[in-house]
């Protein structure tokens, strides 16, 4: 019996009992459909978290002062008030660290931005031009301030979209205008591209960027820096880079062995892995549920195949009498089981992909149908067909033709 | 002298039922030569069915020799027996044993599905030819439930003919049919026999035996009578002699 003969034989047998065949298939269809849909929902959310995080610059490393030991009376200071990070730390990181491409010191303060009669409470972040590269942030109009502006403490700034919208009335071009921030006049030389809301619901466009020296000296009147942003060459080197940074800063701060770091280094990769591990768990759970429904579908196949073997005992007897060997009968029933599960898998994949689309359209959940989930479903289904079809088929092949022929 | 199709010698078959041993066949010997039309008669319990199973290579004798077309059946494995059944024997059963919801043509094709030497195209041609042989050329695509009992048995005979077996083995092939249809089947079998087919027909109806060329009678597991029929009754004449009933609309297609 060649494969083609077997397939056509099995198809005809299945078509002889359309309702039963389709009901049996339904178990597999639902199982596969569930696997595809669930996995695509899980993958979709993982993907969307990943892409949101990478808008923040996925190779970004954040260094902040940190002090775990209580100061004097027991009150701890927040990182913004600790004064351990200095400009020279930023310079040292850029010069000594091999995987770092950009470094920007940063200070930040809140205040009132005023233009004519419009005002808006926002925060001003003092950075260097490198910051825009670290964050992968472009300008919508105007120009970026330069390193010259940083060293000359120039009173220039870039507006985030939200700030621009709130202190400039419609259609007015902010570039070239002078606004006031906490009563200090400062010239707008550019408007930042819209970056949207981040994963935590923060409006990333509600910000004014200015040279950090300007914010330090003219607005906050401080000499230390609050944060250092650094960019590793890519996501994968950020771990190594952060280790290097720790070593450099410890040397710079003259920390002795055993002394705790007075700073903290965070990579986005950590954040990404934390967030993805949450959705990874979701994927695993959903997959487990789907796998169980596949198992139930498989048991359905086994059940029906057993009934079918009993019901077709006479047919089996006849086939044996006219020359079918045990292995022919075995292959015939096995092929039927596999056909049910593979056909079910095909329909299930189609349904699952459509269901994923519907979820995106009607619930606006992000979904992502992965090739691997489709391939996996097919493999699992074939194995299900073989596994659950084998025993009924074996039973059929072991029948005694004399008794099978006389079976009523 | 014609070649021997069947050669059985001192055939014994015993069944162990619990602590008892049932001896169904207690030493049966006879030979069937090519072109013979043999009926095997016997009441129930005579060992007729056991003999049929052995002749059909569905069962193996406990003791004794059985040669089918010069092949010693006793030494064959299960798979080899299946192949032997496929190539050398055409079965015709009392209850037709056609596959439901399967066209006459596909039913007839069935034995050749298990014969890899025959390609699909040839299989189809042979099936059509086989159906023509039994007079059902116009019923090729009919399902068994659309056919009368007699027609279904003809399909079964066509199925038995398709692999050109050395012997047609019929088991009470007319048992489910009325007299007229039975005679029609016998007309067909006599025609096939005349064309050279060897037929072994197991029955308990003495009436049927009169159409054959030889009758072997079994009783209690032994052959008690083995007579050549010098005066073979023509099934065609017997059929014509039957009173025609007014509501009998069945056609004689043979």
Assign the CATH topology of chain B: Rossmann fold
Q: What's the Cα radius of gyration of chain A?
A: 34 Å
Uncertain residue ranges of chain A = none
Q: Give a short account of the largest sheet of chain A.
A: 6 strands, mixed, barrel
Order of helices and strands of chain B: EEEHEEHEHHHEHEHEEH
Largest interface between protein chains, with number of residues from each side: A-B, 23 and 27 residues
> Considering DSSP H and I runs of 4 or more, what fraction of the residues of chain B is helical?
25-40%
Q: Which H/E pattern describes the elements of chain A?
A: HHEHEEHEHEHEEEHEHEHHHHH
Overall form of chain A: elongated
Tell how many strands the DSSP assignment of chain B holds: 10
* Individual helix count of chain A: 13
The average pLDDT value of chain A, as a whole number, equals 85
Shape of chain B: globular
- Top-tier CATH class of chain B: Alpha Beta
**Strand numbers in spatial order across the main sheet of chain B:** 6-7-8-3-9-10
The amount of beta strand of chain A, in percent, is 15-25%
Number of strands of chain A: 10
Write up what this structure looks like.
The complex is a heterodimer of chains A (408) and B (254). Chain A is of the alpha+beta class and 408 residues long. Chain A folds into 2 domains: 183 residues, no CATH class; 195 residues, no CATH class. Chain A is built from 13 helices and 10 strands. A 6-stranded mixed β-barrel of chain A has the order 2-3-8-5-7-6. In chain A, α2 packs across α11 and α2 runs antiparallel to α12. The two termini of chain A are 28 Å apart. With 254 residues, chain B is α/β, with parallel strands linked by helices. Chain B has a single domain, classed as 3-Layer(aba) Sandwich (Rossmann fold). Helices cover 33% and strands 27% of the residues of chain B. Chain B is built from 8 helices and 10 strands. In chain B, the strands form 2 sheets. Chain B has a 6-stranded mixed beta sheet. In chain B, strands 2-1-4-5 form a 4-stranded antiparallel beta sheet, with helices on one face. The longest helix of chain B has 16 residues. The mean pLDDT of chain B is 90. The chains are: A alpha+beta (408), B alpha/beta (254). At the A-B interface, α1, α10, α11 and α13 of A face α2 and α3 of B.
């Amino acid at each position: 019996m060649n494969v083609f003969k077997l397939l056509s034989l099995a198809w005809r047998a299945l078509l002889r009992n359309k309702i039963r065949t389709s009901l049996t298939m339904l178990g597999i269809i639902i199982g596969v459909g569930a696997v595809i849909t669930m996995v695509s929902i899980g993958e979709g959310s993982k993907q969307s978290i990943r892409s949101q995080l990478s808008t923040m610059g996925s190779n970004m490393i954040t260094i902040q002062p940190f002090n775990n030991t209580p100061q004097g009376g027991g009150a701890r200071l927040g990182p913004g008030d600790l004064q351990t990070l200095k400009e020279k730390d930023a310079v040292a990181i850029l010069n000594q660290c091999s995987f770092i491409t950009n470094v920007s010191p940063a200070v930040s303060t809140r205040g009132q931005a005023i233009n004519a009669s419009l005002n808006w409470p926002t925060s001003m972040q003092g950075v260097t031009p490198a910051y825009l590269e670290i964050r992968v942030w472009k300008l919508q109009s105007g120009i970026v301030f330069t390193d010259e502006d940083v060293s000359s403490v120039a009173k220039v700034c870039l507006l985030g979209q939200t700030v621009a919208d709130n202190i400039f009335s419609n259609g007015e071009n902010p570039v070239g205008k002078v606004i006031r921030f906490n009563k200090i006049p400062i010239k707008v030389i550019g408007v930042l591209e819209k970056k949207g809301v981040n994963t935590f619901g923060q409006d990333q466009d509600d910000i004014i960027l200015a040279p950090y020296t300007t914010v330090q000296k003219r607005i906050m009147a401080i000499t230390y820096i609050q944060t250092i942003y650094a960019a590793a060459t890519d996501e994968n080197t950020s771990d190594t880079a952060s280790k290097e940074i720790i070593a450099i800063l410890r040397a710079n701060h003259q920390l002795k062995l055993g002394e705790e770091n007075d700073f903290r280094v965070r990579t986005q990769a950590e954040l990404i892995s934390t967030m993805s591990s949450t959705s990874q768990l979701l994927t695993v759970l959903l997959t487990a549920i789907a796998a169980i429904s596949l198992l139930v579908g498989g048991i359905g196949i086994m059940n029906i195949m057993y009934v079918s073997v009993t019901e077709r005992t006479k047919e089996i007897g006849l086939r044996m009498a006219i020359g079918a060997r045990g292995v022919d009968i075995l292959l015939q029933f096995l092929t039927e089981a596999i056909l049910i599960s593979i056909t079910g898998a095909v329909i299930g994949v189609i349904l699952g992909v459509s269901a994923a689309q519907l979820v995106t359209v009607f619930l606006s959940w992000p979904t992502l149908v992965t090739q691997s989930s489709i391939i996996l479903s097919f493999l699992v289904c074939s194995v299900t067909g073989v596994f659950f079809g084998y025993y009924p088929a074996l039973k059929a092949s072991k029948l005694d033709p004399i008794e099978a022929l006389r079976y009523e | 002298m014609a070649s021997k199709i069947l050669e059985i010698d001192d055939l014994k078959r015993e069944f162990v039922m619990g602590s008892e041993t049932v001896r169904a066949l207690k030493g049966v010997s006879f030979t069937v030569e090519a072109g013979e039309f043999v009926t095997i008669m016997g009441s129930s319990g005579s060992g007729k069915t056991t003999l049929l199973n052995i002749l059909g290579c569905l069962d193996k004798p406990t003791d004794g020799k059985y040669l089918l077309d010069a092949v010693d059946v006793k030494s064959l494995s299960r798979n080899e027996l299946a192949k032997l059944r496929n190539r050398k024997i055409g079965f015709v059963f009392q209850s037709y044993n056609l596959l439901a919801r399967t066209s006459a043509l596909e039913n007839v094709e069935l034995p050749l599905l298990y014969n890899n030497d025959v390609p699909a195209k040839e299989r189809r041609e042979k099936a059509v030819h086989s159906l023509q042989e039994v007079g059902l050329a116009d019923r090729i695509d009919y399902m068994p439930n659309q056919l009368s009992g007699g027609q279904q048995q003809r399909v079964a005979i066509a199925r038995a003919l398709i692999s050109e077996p050395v012997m047609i083995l019929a088991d009470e092939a007319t048992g489910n049919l009325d007299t007229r249809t039975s005679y029609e089947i016998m007309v067909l079998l006599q025609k096939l026999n005349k064309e050279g087919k060897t037929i072994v027909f197991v029955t308990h109806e003495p009436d049927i035996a009169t159409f054959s060329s030889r009758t072997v009678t079994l009783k209690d597991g032994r052959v008690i009578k083995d007579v050549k029929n010098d005066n073979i009754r023509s099934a065609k004449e017997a059929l014509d002699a039957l009173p025609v009933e007014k509501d009998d609309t069945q056609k004689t297609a043979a």
